[in-house]
Amino acid sequence: MASAEGEHGTHLSILWSSTPTTSPFHSKVIKIQRPMSDCALREFEQWVTHHPWTDVLEVKDVHTKWHNFFYHHNGTLPSLLPSKE
Fold it and tell me: 31 in helix, strand or coil?
């Protein structure tokens, strides 16, 4: 993931992922941008700091912790910081 500062103090995250193809020499790369304005970052920050993380913190199994964290994260991130391909 790369991050760059854009106009007016906003930030931009770029997530790179490759798509498997049948050709061993060519692959398709999808670039997803997630513009992060100061306002959107503050909203995300508020969500992260005020979310009750009990289902993550009180579980001993690391795989369950990971699953619970990403369940909440992936459910909230697109609404607060929508992506653009």
Answer: strand
